[in-house]
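job 3f2a | input accepted
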Amino acid sequence: MDQISRAKSSKYEASHAANINHLDNYIELLYSDKLEDKIHSARSLLYLLNEAESIEVMLNHESLIGILARTLRDEYKKSTDLSLYLAGIFYVISNFSTLHAALSQNQIGDTSIKIIEYHIQKYDYMKTELAKVKHDMEKEQKKFEILEKKQNKLLFLCFSILLNIAEDLQIERKIKKRKIISYLIMMLAKDNIALLDVVLRFLKKLSIFAEGKNEMHEQEHIISKLQRFVPCPHHQSICELVLKLILNLSFDSNIRQQLDTLGFIPRLVSLLKHAPFRGLTLKILYQLSMDDKSKSTFTYTECLPMLFLMISQHPEAKVGKELVAVAINLCMNSRNAEIISDGKQLDILIKRALQNQDDLIMKLIRNISGACKSSLIQETLYKYTPKFISAAVSIPEMDFVVEVLGVLVNIDSEELWSKALPNTQLLEFIQKNIVPGYAEDDIILECIMLISTIVCSDKCAKLIGGTTIIKQLNSLLEEKQEDDEMVMQIMFSFYKLLLSKSTRENILHETKVVNYLMELLQDQNPRIKKMADEILALVQEIDEEWKEEIKLKRFQIHNQEWLEQVANNVSEEWEEESEDDSGQVQWADLSDLDGRVWGDMD
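job 3f2a | predicted structure (602 res):
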């Protein structure tokens, strides 16, 4: 048996000779002047602490924790081995939440941080000294590696103790003030899996709060330190922790921008091929897909083809939210919408959405139809328009119907609507659903927007003019004056209807639309004021009767604004002139009155 094997064997025998009946002897050895006695005691106590029959006796000992804490505090610079055994003991104890108060009383958190600081400095010193060595390089390198191995174990234990006692948020705040984030991020350069595991779990915990997240990003540049871990599919636990940490950080727009800049998007996309990481990866990609600048980065990856395959081949009727949500965001970009619709892909998506009444896939189709007007996409949408209309008028599921109507809103074809309106129940559906109080606001809004789309020719306008839609829009404008988006869309519908002679007269002379528009010239919302002004300008061009009245209204508004401004200016000037240092009106004294008024009356 060689020397190393004999040493291991003797250590094993010594540890297994530990006996709970000798507990007081082990405690006494901690007071010895010999370092070897203290190491033997700590090793024996650690062994006993891992035995079920001994642990209760030890934890109930009135002075054991205090003696161990004092020994660690006094000796951690003298022996790494002793520090390892003692830190191991406190690591076991820290797993019991009920004992955290005792650890705090004995300053174990403070000592753990001091050990971390000391060994970081020692490691840097040893590394610097190793670089200076010119002889016996191999021997010195081996010594350095042995030290590093022990240090990694000790750092793992100290960080684990701190993580366990940080269950208490007050203790977590105290720990964070001691540069713990900086020390944790230093550890990301290590290759020890156990150490990386606890470091990443700790960082994930600290990243939940904005203060910790900001320090990681602004002071420690954590994103650049995480590059080497993405992707790392061969270390599943580490990869999952890294992804969870990135997910926490990705709620910050500046961090999302840095993730894009540092090339994380293609790296993350590659992880979609690995099932264990797919859920977390999709959540991060969803965060990144919210930013317009990042959307174009996805265009040059495999993401969109992969998303299409995962959506189209999803085993369940309704596709997972995270999966479709990424595609929905990305397809607000025209090039991305074109890629995911390539060939027969849009056909497949539409069929799946209609078959399963999947509102999220229909929302994806809606975004595609709004972002890209390529001939392939438009032709596919035209082909399915009758089915879209049929689904809208017959399916009771509101969320699905809202998205179907949204798709119809984006189909711009005079020829298509001229054929579709007389042969479907779409106008009846619109009339039924824009009755105030009858339908949900989301349905009402989509119907109003659809009116703006379908009134694309005189033929379509005549069909609308033959219904009650114009009067209903007039009622809605009065009813929904507090809903700015609704008001904007109703106004735009009236603008489109005013462009057609078939509906113009009805609006101008049988409704109060123009009166409402003149009132809206003084609305608080500048977008509403601008649109009202533009529509009234159109009315002035097409109707002489309204022309002068609108002109008078504009003058009155301008005059009122001018008078208010003059009044405000006069008021401000009076206030400035009537105030002195004390803020009170001052009277001339009697001598002034004598000289100015009475002097010439003799």
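job 3f2a | The first helix runs from residue 3 to 16.
job 3f2a | closed
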